[in-house]
Amino acid sequence: MTREELEQKVAEGADLHGADLQGAYLQGADLHEAYLYRANLFGAELYGADLHGADLCGAKLCGANLQGADLRGANLSRAYLQGANLSGCNGLIDPSEWIKEYGERCEDGYVFYKTFGNEYPSPDNWKIEPGEYITEVVNPDRTCECACGVNVGTLKWITKNYPNAEVYKVLIECWDLPSVVVPYNTDGKIRCGRVKILEKVEK
Predict the structure, then answer these.
(1) Greatest extent of the chain over all pairs of C-alpha atoms, in Å
(2) What does the mean pLDDT of the chain come to?
């Protein structure tokens, strides 16, 4: 499929899920809102491409050149980005900026919120009491919204998703910030390697 044919299909709203575009030359291509679910874009040249609002869920982008691409609103859930060049991309969440905007800053770090045992049982070594630290190995893949690690969220996210659950205030201390993973498509949930339980939130 040539670039012109692909752009025409995008313009016509064609279903491109699973399309084989390995190594395709798509520099500057207009692919906004393209449906590229599980498409094979391995090694594709996407320098400066417009992928605003594109559905790239599960797409194979390993080794692709996405330098300067517009990824605002793009769905990168479960996309394969190993070896992809994301330099200068527009629209990717910056983890430090996200934490500063949505975390509650305090002297020792940032405060978030957590519930326990709603979807998965808590590890046996977790002691869920104020003053205790809980730890977990973190999956660093930012294309996964939910993966292993100590998953925490904003109070708004917690109350929306678990309105009847017990909620705890937790602290990500400054020296634990390098373990934080902010998914590309987060709607308020992140994960990290360790948090300190501060207190139970009274409703």
Answers:
(1) 60
(2) 92
